[in-house]
Write a structure and sequence with these properties.
The structure holds 2 protein chains of 2 kinds.
Chain A lengths: L1 E5 L2 E2 L7 E2 L6 E2 L6 E2 L1 H17 L4 E8 L3 H11 L3 E6 L8 H15 L3 E5 L10 H9 L2 E11 L4 E8 L4 E8 L2 E5 L11 H7 L4 E4 L8 H6 L3 E7 L8 E2 L5 H14 L5
Parallel strand pairs in A: 1-6, 1-8, 6-7, 7-13, 8-12, 9-12
Antiparallel strand pairs in A: 2-5, 3-4, 9-10, 10-11
Chain B lengths: L2 E5 L1 E2 L2 E2 L2 H12 L7 E7 L3 H6 L7 E6 L8 H15 L3 E5 L2 H14 L2 E6 L3 E3 L2 E9 L4 E7 L6 E5 L15 E4 L11 E8 L12 E5 L9 H11 L2 E4 L1 H5 L20 E5 L5 H7 L4 E6 L6 H4 L2 E4 L2 H17 L1
Parallel strand pairs in B: 1-4, 1-6, 4-5, 5-12, 6-11, 7-11, 14-15, 14-16, 16-17, 17-18
Antiparallel strand pairs in B: 2-3, 8-9, 9-10
Helix pairs in contact in B: 3-4, 5-9
């Protein structure tokens, strides 16, 4: 069995974001990019399933982006993924989610994988669309925002808990092939000790082009249906005020008056 | 502009956020209810269809079948395709709820359409939807997004609580039954059960008021003072990551980077220091109140109103004052 985990490089949460004067490019200061935090739950899910399955189960960490993304992917290899596959993006050509789904669908077919894990969303654009889009392109089922799972031992899950809203959870039974999106509540990503980090650097790592997947950049770009037109910083919030009062009761009383008469939210 | 709008029903009831989707669709159509068709899917739909009258749509496509009693992404997307084709839609919209986001993504991939997610507004030029704005990096950047190329439809999901919903709009909501498409997936994929945490609470992502607690609450049982206050306020209860990691609250209550992004009119942060990860999830709230004993806490930087006070004293007091206000 082959399991693929998709990784996305994102800016660090702590990074200070700046926009160029043309409103087209973002920069993130000196902070190094990170692997999208949700993707680590996906890696943990895949590696823990591999441990359960045993045998010749293989976990492939995959991504699309500039060659430097390889450094970020080492984390997945240190956690237990067997090898890496990076589809190298030609510079300056941005794909949207749908075009990317075609790239990953082609990679999944080439590798003949039966299960794909992603983070439920990436913390940069928060689109939450890769899991359903990739599944549709492959003609597979999908469950996103998985918070718990029970593997049936052979070919599927007796439970995949999809966390929705209002404290509700949908429970799925599903057989492979599947695309699954990991939520934070699914597991606790393992710590990779130094020997594993060193070992990761020696694991097989392939850099591919979209042509290696039987695709062609021109067609992919023609299939890009959305783009960022311009970027701006949100309007600065006026400074708030401290609500005073002799006692806590007086403070709260003043607060309630302000919320009712000034903010008009009560 | 012909718009198809995805309406959510759970257990035969209309999801409140869907009325906002209808209002968005109506506005997109240039206030022409004849140009708006809703799609609603589920086992028993009569109550939902009734609730859709005078809400902006002249037509309602219904897919009522036991097979779609629970959410099935691929089948739901196929129903949406059938409706969009029949109506001759140019645009398909939904709210950016868990189901709305999921089904629109599957739909966009099925039809090779451009999808913009989590929009806070939209831009129409010469009667054509060209794009809209959405927050990136948890609201630290606003991006103006555009459709391009030759997508079959323009698909958009809108962030909840980003427009006010009128009490009523034109629209007779005449029903048009859809024939359920053949299951596009093997029968061994199904949502067999929907469970609930039992505590009947207001949805965090739909809540108009949220009261959240941090680790300084000191224990799961201490969240009761927030729940009691929330009941009087008509609020949902949230938690910081620190409180969730400490086991005081469940993950579905977490607001922030690895939890939920919320957008209420009023957000009351109690004993929350204001880590970047938390602020990422609540900074777009219209009014933020912070209650913290530490006057240096970062949360005061984003708060509209700050109270340097002990939450164990302030929250019960707030509950009493709001109760007075509501009775008087």
């Amino acid at each position: 069995m082959k399991i693929m985990v998709l990784l996305k490089e994102t800016a660090d949460t702590e990074a200070k974001i700046e926009i160029d004067p043309q409103g087209k490019q973002l920069s993130f200061g000196a902070q190094k990019p990170i692997v999208n935090p949700y993707d680590e739950f996906a890696v943990e899910a895949a590696v823990s399933l591999k441990e359960k399955m045993g045998g010749d189960t293989e976990v492939i960490a995959a991504s699309y982006g500039p060659a430097t993304v390889k450094d970020r992917m080492m984390r997945a290899l240190a956690m237990g993924a067997d090898r890496g596959a990076l589809v190298v993006a030609p510079s300056g050509e941005a794909l949207d989610g749908l075009a990317l789904a075609q790239v990953f669908a082609a990679l999944a077919k080439k590798e003949d994988v039966q299960m794909i894990w992603c983070g439920k969303q990436a913390i940069d654009d928060d689109n939450m669309h890769m899991v359903p889009m990739l599944a549709e392109k492959l003609g597979w089922g999908h469950v996103n925002v998985v918070g718990a799972m029970e593997w049936n031992g052979t070919d599927g899950f007796t439970n995949l808990a999809r966390e929705v809203d209002g404290g509700q959870t949908e429970h799925y039974t599903a057989k492979l092939p599947l695309v699954l999106g990991a939520n934070k509540s699914l597991n606790k990503p393992r710590y990779a000790p130094v020997p594993k980090v060193l070992q990761a650097k020696k694991k097989p790592f392939a850099q591919l082009s979209v042509e290696d997947l039987g695709l062609n950049m021109e067609t992919l770009l023609a299939g890009v249906l959305t783009e960022v037109d311009s970027l701006e910083l949100p309007p600065a919030k006026p400074a708030g005020r401290m609500v005073e009062g002799e006692t806590v009761e007086a403070m709260v009383s003043n607060l309630v008056t302000l919320l009712r008469d000034e903010a008009k939210v009560l | 502009m012909k718009v198809v709008v995805f309406v959510e029903s759970r257990d035969g009831q209309l999801k409140k956020a869907s009325l906002e989707a209808l209002a968005r669709a109506y506005a997109l159509s240039g206030n022409q209810d004849a140009e708006v068709a809703a799609v609603v899917i589920g086992e028993e739909l009569s109550a939902v269809v009734e609730a859709l009258k005078q809400r902006g749509a002249a037509k309602v496509y219904t897919a009522a079948d036991v097979q779609v009693k629970t959410y099935h992404a691929s089948l739901y997307a196929a129903c949406l395709v059938a409706a969009a084709e029949d109506f001759g839609a140019e645009v398909v919209v939904a709210m950016a709820t868990p189901m709305g986001r999921d089904v629109t993504a599957r739909f966009a991939a099925k039809t090779d359409s451009g999808l913009l997610t989590d929009l806070v507004d939209f831009q129409v030029e010469n009667g054509v939807l060209v794009g809209g704005r959405k927050p990136l990096y948890a609201g630290k950047v606003i991006a103006k997004m555009k459709y391009k190329g030759a997508g079959k439809y323009k698909v958009a999901s809108f962030r909840v609580n980003t427009m006010s919903v009128p009490e009523s709009l034109p629209g007779a909501a005449e029903t048009v039954p859809l024939t359920l498409p053949q299951a596009p997936l093997a029968a061994d994929f199904a949502c067999t059960q929907v469970s609930s945490t039992g505590v009947k609470t207001v949805d965090l992502s739909e809540a108009d008021i949220i009261i959240s607690g941090g680790r300084s609450l000191g224990g799961a049982e201490k969240f009761k003072i927030l729940r009691d206050c929330a009941e009087v306020l008509g609020a949902a209860v949230g938690a910081s990551r620190a409180a969730v990691d400490a086991g005081f609250a469940s993950h579905d209550m977490q607001v922030g980077q690895t939890g939920k992004t919320v957008n209420p009119s009023l957000y009351i942060a109690c004993g929350i220091s204001g880590a970047i990860q938390h602020m990422a999830g609540m900074r777009t709230s219209k009014i933020i109140v912070a209650i913290n004993t530490d006057p240096e806490a970062a949360i005061f930087k984003v708060a509209d109103y700050g109270l340097v006070a002990d939450l164990f004293e302030a929250v019960p007091c707030l509950q009493a004052k709001v109760q007075e206000l509501k009775q008087g």
